[in-house]
Write a structure and sequence with these properties.
428 residues; mainly alpha; Clc chloride channel; 2 strands
Length: 428
């Protein structure tokens, strides 16, 4: 009787696992195609906006008008989606209303306008929000009988997995790092813990989304060259730890300054649409008067340069302040590519004093500052391996872990919660 019962349990386990795999493979295919296609369109539009801004530098003087338009649109029609990435994390923790589809066009247009007129922002936030808001629309299959019968009802736990998959797909497709994208979706919303029940949809969606962007739509990504990586020895280990701490402090400064400036704008300007108006005016004036145009926009060419030759020792600090000011005043985009800029240039600065190759230190900073700011050391370690190669991954892993430990638990995503294994509780 016990043997018969064991066989039944084994058969039921296999049946439920097979149904789970089939169901989430189908859903992941939909989410991957949607998020990958959205990222492809976004990257094309962003390239056009950047090239236009470079061709016509005077467009920065229209940044206040663009800011007023962005602020007015969000204040009038976008209150339900204004929190951006933090709203996605809140929904994962406590699923309630389906994220409005308007999040996708609002953040897309807002980001393009920000970059077209010279704001200093990134692109990860846009891709992640588009991927998650599009994936969350699949919750509506509960209303369609044929899909409900094929795929089953979307329960609250399923909504969490849809959002995680959408985040993974958006991140993977916009950076060309599918494995890091999958881990990022699992790691970003709860410090110290991974949501392993979502690993299948997260991984499948990230891989499909990246394939859709790169192969189906033929959108390429920037390549970074690290030609030589020395074998890790005791000196290299110590340098990596010290650099990791420095990268973590830079991440902490960026997060703190962004939150501080955001509070100032909220305190001194009560009407939200006027915040990016005033911020755009001040930003355009500062950039024009100081001739610091190289620190606006995404800064991809400058990031590539930081792998090749010495840069100004203060470039990471200027980019950090410019990005904090842009985002805090209400412009749209993301923090990650500017964090890549900050990290690679800080690593470049370290190369003037430390006996490791410049490209290696730039690559370590590229991922480690992001690891500290987003509290995602595992995803950033995998990203280093995908972008720079396995040999860099050894150094990068050390830098990412120590950046994570030294950056504090309050990062760029204020809605992150502490897990039972988080660094804060571990040290109490």
């Amino acid at each position: 009787m016990k043997i018969h019962s064991a066989h039944n349990n084994l058969f039921l386990e296999f049946k439920y696992t097979l149904l789970f795999v089939i169901r989430w493979s189908i859903l992941s295919l939909f989410i991957g195609f949607l998020s990958g296609s959205a990222s492809a369109f976004f990257l094309l539009a962003l390239e056009y906006a950047t090239n236009t801004r470079l061709a016509y530098p005077y467009l920065i003087f229209f940044l206040p008008i663009a800011g007023l338009l962005i602020g007015f649109v969000y204040h009038t029609w976008g209150v339900s989606v204004v929190k951006g990435n933090n709203q996605l994390i809140e929904q994962i923790h406590n699923p309630r209303k389906v994220i409005p589809l308007r999040m996708t066009p609002f953040v897309l247009i807002g980001t393009i306008l920000t970059h077209l007129f010279g704001g200093s922002a990134g692109r990860e936030g846009t891709a992640v929000q588009m991927g998650a808001s599009l994936s969350d629309q699949l919750t509506h299959i509960n209303r369609i009988k044929i899909f409900r019968r094929m795929l089953g009802r979307i329960r609250p736990i399923d909504r969490k997995m849809l959002l995680i998959a959408g985040i993974s797909g958006g991140f993977a497709s916009v950076f060309g790092t599918p494995i890091a994208g999958a881990i990022f979706g699992l790691e970003v919303f709860l410090l110290g813990r991974l949501q392993f029940e979502a690993i299948l949809p997260s991984m499948l969606t990230a891989i499909i989304a990246d394939w859709v962007t790169q192969s189906f739509w033929s959108i390429g990504h920037t390549e970074y060259l690290v030609p030589f990586v020395p074998n890790l020895d005791s000196i290299g280990l110590c340098i990596s730890i010290l650099c990791g701490i420095g990268f973590g402090l830079a991440a902490r400064f960026f997060s703190a300054s962004t939150h501080y400036m955001s509070r100032l704008f909220s305190k001194w300007i009560s009407y939200p649409p006027f915040r990016p108006l005033v911020g755009g005016f001040l930003f355009a004036a500062i950039v024009s008067l100081t001739d610091t145009f190289r620190y606006i926009g995404l800064g991809i060419p400058e990031i590539v340069e930081s792998f090749e030759k010495q840069q100004s020792i203060f470039s990471f600090l200027i980019k950090s302040l410019y990005t904090s000011f842009t985002l805090a005043s209400g412009f749209k985009g993301g923090e990650v590519t500017p964090l890549f800029y900050i990290g690679s240039h800080l690593g470049n600065a370290f190369s003037q004093f430390l006996p490791l190759p410049l490209p290696l230190l730039a690559s370590m900073g590229f991922v480690a500052v992001f690891a500290g700011a987003a509290n995602t050391p595992l995803a950033c370690t995998i990203m280093a391996i995908e972008l720079f190669g396995i040999q860099v991954g050894v150094y990068a892993s050390i830098a990412c872990v120590f950046a994570y430990l030294s950056s504090g638990h309050s990062g760029i995503y204020s809605s992150q919660l502490l897990g039972s294994n988080s660094k804060i509780r571990r040290f109490k």
